[in-house]
Design goal:
Number of strands: 10
Oligomer: single chain
Helix content: 40-55%
Shape: globular
Strand order of the largest sheet: 6-7-8-9-10
CATH architecture: Alpha/alpha barrel
Length: 356
Amino acid sequence: MSGLYLSRGLFPEEFLRPTVEFILGVQQPSGEIPWFESGYTDPWDHIEAAMGLSIGGEHTAAKLAYAWLASVQLADGSWWASYRGDEIDNSKRRETNFVAYIATGVWHHFLITEDREFLQSLWPAVEKAIGFVLSLQTEHGEIHWAVDGDGKPKCDALVTGCSSIYKSLECACNIAVTLGQDSSAWQQARIELGLALRHKPERFDRTWESKARYSMDWFYPVLTGVLPAAEGRARLVSRWDEFVEPNLGCRCVSDEPWATVAESCELVMALLAAGDHARAVEVYSWLHQWRAADGSYWTGYQWVEDLLWPDEKPTWTAGAILLAADALTEHTAASGLFTGVQLLPADARESKERAN
């Protein structure tokens, strides 16, 4: 199906119910949500799928997903790159943006449910996770992208990863304020990270080839609130033709004929954050031609070879579909999470920061 045009107040619940059921069907009894049946689980994508469950009204399943994540958290607050059940699938690294994302997921679930007991129960996991992440922030403001298997920092930073952390710090501060915890150090760390992302490009991609060919480097600073709306619009316009293939979606990388559904959904939310509602609706309308009969979505489409590639329908892609639909229709109380900055105690500081 294609041509699904969404507007405020018109969440297509019946249409998207099979997508929610797909995530539920892959979720394990423990709460773990692998990429797909018999696949591995990474913390970031597990949370993306869990947010889809929250939007779909499956609050018990979403809570179980976060409980599983907390149960496998390491003593220093981090998670390994991937898991298969209780077994570690990849012990070569622990990525900071993966670790920080628990704050985004937990705050998202709380916005929808107002379940303070849930928020309190996950607070220790969030606090430890953010502590681990900020231990890897440099004096310049950026945050190292990972540590290796022995815990040694991999000393470089990613625009996409740090932008994701920037949003997670917003959510972590909101959790702290809601629970009466001190968030001042986290607020300051977020300010320093934002300044690095906006004004210190030399602090990113120092030891590898630039990641600027990846669409996420293009739109993540807009999606996560690093840039105000006007600058976000200008950034999206500047490379639109490089990354967006009309009637198909957003490319993963600028130099490959491959549109991916999850990146397209995130672009939809970035467009909303930039105030470009019309293009957000249009891009989202293209994506349902990649929907399977069971409500899942293929990863992407390679149009030169005319094939769906890879042969995967990930749970996190389904989660992204639900997040974008929620953002477009304002269906839940969390619908604005990725379309604006909502930092509870620091509006004045946020305004001052963006004036710098």
